[in-house]
Amino acid sequence: MRPLIAGNWKMHGTLREAGALAEAVRAGATAGLPADLLVCPPFPHIHIVAAAMLGQTVAVGAQDCHAAGKGAHTGDVSAAMLRDIGATHVILGHSERRADHGETDAAVRAKVEAALAAGLVPVVCVGETEAQRLAGEAEAVVEGQLAGSLPDGFAGIVAYEPVWAIGTGRTPTEDDIAAIHGTIRAALVARFGPAGQATRILYGGSMKPGNAKAILALAHVDGGLVGGASLVAADFLAIAAAAG
Ligand code: 13P
After folding, report:
1. DSSP states of 29-77
2. Measuring from atom 5 of ligand 1, which residue has the nearest CA?
3. How far from 112 is each of 6, 49, 200, 235, CA to CA, in Å?
4. Alpha carbon separation from 109 to 105, 128, 153, 183 (Å, rounded)
5. Which residues contact 139 (CB under 8 A, 6 or more apart)?
6. Which of 168, 226, 232, 239 to mutate to test the pocket of ligand 1 (most atoms within 8 A of CB)?
7. CB-hemisphere CA count at 13 Å for 167?
8. What distances in angstroms separate CA 128 from CA 98, 160, 183, 232, one per listed residue?
9. Residues having CB within 6 Å of any atom of ligand 1
């Protein structure tokens, strides 16, 4: 399937910087690129980035949403609000939100349902900690997160992001990535049938221009979820170019 390279801009940048980065990504998103592109700015920057990408091939997403459609939830943002300002995707269950905000699998699942109801494509993150990997629990942890975080009828994207590889410059071996992506594919197919076969599974965690080609060539790696390197347009585009 056609790969997707997604940039998670996390909590970085000014409005001006977001606009410049969006413009640079847009300019580089040429027809020959072998991957679809998605950028996920912080909430205050989504609108201007979506405006910059309007009519272009680069999709825009958020990094979280609330599980409720609307209501008395001070400081939160609904999936419908994101849709209204031009987002088409939303990252949910990122390990930083699971850690910083105590998001459980059940909470993530409720957000995924809200995103789907609002017409957003959820990008659901799973991944083990270093202690869990060292204990030989990585596959079981990821299977448990998938079972708990994905609702019945799931139609979206899954991202495997080992927590210990995020922002550290460390990545699992190619064999380890291939093994866990195979496990994720098997779980998706067992639960969702043909839809699970067609679900994109992204790899995330210290993906850079230098390691992207080898990682993106692995079986059941259908793209990348890129943090730090997505803040430099040339690096983000180089990763996308490596998907071919
Ligand atoms: P880095 O690419 O900075 O390791 O971040 C990965 C990530 O968390 C993307 O969601």
Report:
1. --TT-SSEEEEE--HHHHHHHHHHHTTSSEEEEES---SSSSSS-TT--
2. 227
3. 18, 23, 16, 30
4. 6, 18, 12, 20
5. 179, 180, 183
6. 226
7. 8
8. 12, 9, 13, 27
9. 8, 94, 161, 166-167, 204-207, 225-229
Per residue of the chain (244 residues), give pLDDT as tens: 999 999 999 999 999 999 999 999 999 999 899 999 999 999 999 999 999 998 888 999 999 999 999 999 999 999 999 999 999 999 999 999 999 999 999 999 999 999 999 999 999 999 999 999 999 999 999 999 999 999 999 999 999 999 999 999 999 999 999 999 999 999 999 999 999 999 999 999 999 999 999 999 999 999 999 999 999 999 999 999 999 8
Amino acid code (one letter) for 193? G
Report pTM. Answer: 0.98
Asked whether 120 and 79 are in contact (CB, 8 A), the reply is: yes
- What CATH number has the domain bearing residue 156? 3.20.20.70
Residue type, 125: C
Residue 227 in tokens: 């943090």
As for how many domains the chain has, the answer is 1
By annotation, the residues acting in catalysis are 94, 161
- The residue segments making up the domain with residue 102 are 4-241
Contact call for residues 7 and 236 (beta carbons, < 8 A): yes
